[in-house]
Design a protein that fits this description.
Structural class: alpha+beta
CATH class: Mainly Beta
Low-confidence stretches: 1-11, 198-209
Number of domains: 1
Largest sheet: 7 strands, antiparallel
Helix content: 10-25%
Number of helices: 5
CATH topology: Jelly Rolls
Strand content: 35-45%
Strand order of the largest sheet: 1-11-8-13-6-3-2
Shape: globular
Radius of gyration: 17 Å
Distance between the termini: 33 Å
CATH superfamily: Alpha-ketoglutarate-dependent dioxygenase AlkB-like
Number of strands: 14
Mean pLDDT: 85
């Protein structure tokens, strides 16, 4: 962790968090928002509950209704250069980030405490529109947590890997202004096993526990 990262936390920052505040310029941000809004975003659904943020996935799709994991549409052309740049930022080999999730957070939308599903490994997020705060917590006792925060200005990028990816939960509070995000993910060893092609060339059906 760099001194700059340490300064962003009231306590020492979690290992595996990286951050860059000016990953995109204003024109690139506006272009990305327009592209996201032109896709077929759908309300987020989780086990019969419908959220007010809207999403779509590329590369691979995780279904929170039935825990299914399956191929999605390939990355659109506009998203590929951002994926390539995100891999460079994260120090990942070309082709590592194989899943993308686009999200629009209207006013009042946020995301609760969670860890990304175990089929995924490194997580790289690009923040667009209104600024937000990435809240982080790690359980230290039955009712106690160690907490940290990372401010996400528009056009910034962050990486969750290693300890912060697996030992910490993260969330974003409900937004007072509209926000968009692009989240790229790599596959974990579990994810790679579940995405191996079967004899007919289709991915084997995969479900997480």
């Amino acid at each position: 962790m760099t001194a700059r990262q340490a300064d962003l936390f009231d306590i020492p920052g979690p290992s595996g968090l990286r951050f860059e505040p000016k990953f995109l310029n204003a024109i690139e941000e506006s272009t990305a928002i327009t592209a996201i809004d032109s896709t077929g975003l759908e309300p987020f659904r989780f086990q019969g509950w419908t959220g007010n943020r809207r999403t779509t996935s590329y590369g691979w799709r995780y279904d929170f209704e039935d825990s299914g994991f399956a191929r999605a549409e390939p990355f659109p052309a506009w998203l590929v250069p951002l994926r390539d740049r995100a891999e460079t930022f994260a120090g990942l080999a070309p082709g590592t980030l194989v899943q993308a999730l686009l999200i629009h957070y209207p006013i009042g939308a946020g995301i609760g405490w969670h860890r990304d599903r175990p089929v995924f490994e490194e997580v790289v997020g690009i923040s667009l529109g209104a600024p937000a705060t990435l809240r982080l917590r790690r359980r230290t006792g039955p009712r106690a947590f160690e907490r940290a925060e990372q401010f996400l200005p528009p056009r910034s990028i962050y990486l969750l890997a290693g300890e912060v990816r697996h030992a910490w939960e993260h969330s974003i509070a409900p937004m007072a202004e509209p926000r968009w995000s692009i989240t790229f993910r790599a596959l974990s060893a579990l994810g790679r096993r579940q995405t191996q092609d079967g004899p007919d060339g289709d991915p084997r059906p995969g479900r997480t526990g």
